[in-house]
UniProtKB/TrEMBL annotation:
InterPro entries: DNA-bd_dom_put_sf, HTH_17, SinI_DNA-bd. It comes from Cuspidothrix issatschenkoi CHARLIE-1. GO terms for molecular function: DNA binding. This is Helix-turn-helix domain-containing protein. It comes from the Bacteria. Residues 14-59 form the Helix-turn-helix domain.
């Protein structure tokens, strides 16, 4: 039997490390997203924090775009008779 580690979120605010783990991206890439304004953040002392709902909203938008892109690629493959 395989066991899995489960992380429970006990606050509506996440650290950069926690948010990066949820998105499965690097700390550096998430920092770029924050600096570009794609994901809103705020400071608590000297530490950046991200509201959980803001992160989930971003994730949902990215997931929807990914699905649209995959659907378009599948449609093009069908039209070009690529065999898959």
């Amino acid at each position: 039997m395989q066991t899995r580690k489960v992380n429970l979120i006990t606050s509506d605010q996440l650290t950069i490390q926690e948010a990066a783990k949820i998105l499965n991206v690097s700390h550096a890439y998430l920092t770029q997203l924050l600096e570009s304004g794609e994901i809103p953040d705020h400071k608590v002392g000297n530490t950046r924090r991200i509201f959980y709902q803001d992160l989930i909203d971003y994730k949902n938008i990215i997931d929807a775009k990914r699905q649209e892109t995959l659907a378009e690629l599948a449609k093009q493959a069908q039209e070009l008779n690529m065999g898959y």
